[in-house]
Amino acid sequence: MQQNFKEHIIQLLLQDDRLNDEQGELRGNLVKEYVNTLDEKLITRLLEDEQTRTKFFLKIKDAYVFKTNEFKFFLDENSIDNSFTQYSNRIGLASGGKFLKDNTDVVLDFPFKDCILEGGQSTEDGLDTYFEDDGNGDYIERQSKRKEIFFNEVLARDEIDRLLEPKAFTNITKYDSKGKSKPTKFTRNSKGTITDNLIIKGNNLLALHSLKKEFKGKVKLIYIDPPYNTGNDSFAYNDNFNHSTWLTFMRNRLVVARELLCEDGVIFVQCDHHEISYLNLLFDNIFEVKNKVQQITIKVSAPSGFKAVNPGPIDVTEYVLFYSKNKSKVQFKKNYVPTGYHKNYNKYFSNEGEIEDWKLLSLKEVVLKHNGYSNEKELKKEIGENYKSILNQLISDFALKNAEKVVSVRDLHKPTKQVAEIQKQSKIERNKFFEYIKQDGKSTYLINGGALAFYSSKLNLVNGDVKVTELLTNFWNHISWAGIAKEGAVKLKNGKKPEKLIKQIIELINFDEGIILDYHLGSGTTCATAHKMGCQYIGIEQLDYAENDSVERLNTVINGDSTGISKYKDINWKGGGSFVYLELAKNNQTAKEEILKCKSLKELMQYFETMYQKCFLHYNVRIKQFKEEISQEENFKKLPLERQKEIFSKMLDLNQLYVNLSEMEDSRYKIDAKDIALGKDFYQLKK
Questions:
Q1: Which residues have a Cβ under 8 Å from the Cβ of 113 and sit 6 or more positions away?
Q2: What is the DSSP letter of 660?
Q3: Domain for residue 524, yes or no?
Q4: Calpha distance 413→524 (Å, rounded)
Q5: What is the pLDDT of residue 239?
Q6: 92: left (phi over 0), alpha (psi -120 to 50) or beta
């Protein structure tokens, strides 16, 4: 009877979609949370059911009182939880310092960019290729979104004892125009700081902590394009923790990133509308409100294609938060962006001879005459109805080439007493030029009460070319996302950023020296751009993008990549330079990857024999009980393979994911002697 009532409770609760996990099982921890908060929807469901109303409610006159403690006791006594949580509890796994059974907290890592997804993943967007019978004796190749496997793990602060210690490096390799080689030491400047460009493979949080000893206070600029937390994947978020867990993920890394920044250092973080408000508050907390520089809005696409069929306004923008470590120390640069011809510059300043002979002519008439036409009608007769666009182009080209002669007449804003007198006189003596000297010692001219503004003041160098410009604002629509798929000869379809964007960001500050850091490197756009601009860089990435990763891209850069910003005159990239590749030496991380590769419970159990003998397991894992009892139970065998893998992964001690620097000479880890020597050189350890 009791068992039947338990099943009745489970089926009743499963009718609430909020309480179903991605496997269709009951989220027991969430049930307890809703009980604690007296969730109206849950209480109503229990009250409307006759059996639960009789069992868990006390009737007083016409009212029913929910017996909260009795219901919670029933949940605990009857293990009302999903199968995964039940097995995790029995094995002895813990999360956040509590057994999963007793813990309602959830902290997630995210299945983008910063984490291992599948052992055999080949594309960053997680596509599986399969073949479907077309009904005519042939097969059609199709692709579907892969249901990614990722294990969400968290360590409570009191559980961390080794996790954030500096890590050992392995597979240290130098890449230059001659190919790959083993360096003998790292290059350093007169201050003893490493000047090699670095690409580090491994968990970015642990890599950042490993950089602190060498690079604390030495990074000038950080740009990151982190996971956006959009939920547009098969990963099941707990909506109650969605924002907070993403912010925890971000905060862990931003705190140490701030330590790496020098006093005049800056950080740029790109995201979309899903988390911008939360991220802004997080930055205010870590970097302080006074050090916020700007929130930049970037137009990243046009309202066309599939976006145009979405309901509501079309989403075409992303955002870049721009903060500094100490705003008062940062040297900002004025930036300019190309713009079209300014039509208010419609006069031609003819200043031949004495000032009495100077004239202000119509620019259009001057341009027509310059091109052999006495008037606009002649041009129309020759060109046809499209003559206006031709004329506008002729005016634009002429104005650019003769910018020192093309002017606009403008009202004076708050003129000095002396200038006001000249202005008054110029209004009386019409069509006569008056000269006066500005405070900077330069001459300017008045006519008919207005001052001449020269078109040449609108010209500036942009990417090495003279362009008509306007000052850069906090809305960027001048950077095209179209055609960037082939930049750097890598094909990271989603999330790839144009090199021009990174160039624009670098140019916002006086970057005479310093290091650029990107710890969500992806396909390597940040480092590729920095390399071409002659800036030192450090990139960190955990995912393996195979032929499309940052190492391949930077090799292409070294060998003269002609895409992206390469052809800009101020870059004129021909190739050269070098970088050093390093991997965090794996320990339990290898076991995680082996677990992900397993294709059945049988393979998992076979690997478990190696795992518990050679790997570091969580201290409270009950190995014997798991081997002899739990793994043999039918219910455990019926768990989805993904959930079985998650249980195996949670048995690992997360403090032991990578080899700590202090243990790199331990023979168990088989780290190459040359890598050990280079590791000592990196950390400047005494031999």
A1: 226, 227, 495, 520, 522, 541, 542, 543
A2: B
A3: yes
A4: 48
A5: 34
A6: left
Helix (H, G, I), strand (E, B) or coil at 450: strand
Cα 503–Cα 508–Cα 509 angle in degrees, nearest 5 = 115
**Same domain membership, residue 278 and residue 225:** yes
Among 13, 47, 81, give the residue marking a domain's end: 81
Q: CA-to-CA distance for 426 and 358, rounded, in angstroms?
A: 14
Do 234 and 178 fall into the same domain?
A: yes
What confidence tens digit (pLDDT) does each residue in 400-413 have? 999 999 999 998 87
Q: Do 586 and 60 form a contact (C-beta atoms < 8 A)?
A: no
- pLDDT for residue 162: 83
Annotate 321-389 with three-state secondary structure: EEEECCHHHCCECCCEEECCCCCCCCEEEECCCCHHHCEEEEHHHHHHHHCCCCCHHHHHHHHCCCHHH
CA–CA gap between residue 625 and residue 38 (Å, rounded): 37
Cα separation, 406 vs 685, in Å, equals 65
- How many domains does the chain contain in total? 3
Describe the strand order of the beta sheet including 261-271 as a list of residue ranges: 179-181, 169-176, 579-584, 198-201, 536-541, 515-518, 219-224, 261-271, 317-324, 292-299, 475-476
The region that residue 24 occupies, defined by phi over 0 for left and psi between -120 and 50 for alpha, beta otherwise, is left
Q: Which of 566, 584, 602 is the last residue of a domain?
A: 584
Of the candidates 468, 432, 469, 476, the residue with the CA atom closest to the CA atom of residue 450:
432
Distance CA 361, CA 398 (A): 14
Helix boundaries (H) for 619-682? 623-628, 634-638, 641-650, 673-682
Q: Domain for residue 247, yes or no?
A: yes
Distance (Å, rounded) from C-alpha 508 to C-alpha 265?
12
Q: How far apart are CA 15 and CA 394, in angstroms?
A: 71
Phi and psi torsions of 97, nearest 5°:
80, 5
DSSP conformation letters of 174-229:
EEETTEEE--SS--B-TTS-B-S-EEEES-HHHHHHHHHHHHTT-EEEEEE-----
- DSSP class of 631: G
Domain match, 176 and 276 both: yes
In this predicted model, what pLDDT tens digit does every residue of 103-132 receive, in sequence order?
Answer: 433 232 443 333 322 222 333 344 444 344
**Residue 323 burial class via C-beta count within 10 angstroms: exposed 0-12, middle 13-18, buried 19 and up:** buried
Residues 250 and 353 in one domain: no
Encode pLDDT of 88-102 as tens digits. 777 666 444 444 444
Asked whether 52 and 9 are in contact (CB, 8 A), the reply is yes
> Which own/partner pairs from 208-211 qualify as long-range (CB within 8 Å, at least 24 positions apart)?
208/253, 208/256, 208/257, 208/260, 208/519, 208/540, 209/164, 209/165, 209/166, 209/256, 210/166, 210/167, 210/584, 210/661, 211/260, 211/538
Element (H, E) at 84: helix 83-91
Q: Which residue range forms the structural domain that includes residue 209?
A: 162-335+475-584
How far is it, in rounded angstroms, from Cα 367 to Cα 394? 7
319 and 233 share one domain: yes
Residues 679, 207: Cα–Cα separation, whole Å = 13
Give the number of other CB atoms < 10 A from CB of residue 491.
15
Instruction: Report the DSSP pairing between strands 515-518 and 475-476.
Output: unpaired
Within-domain flag for 89? no
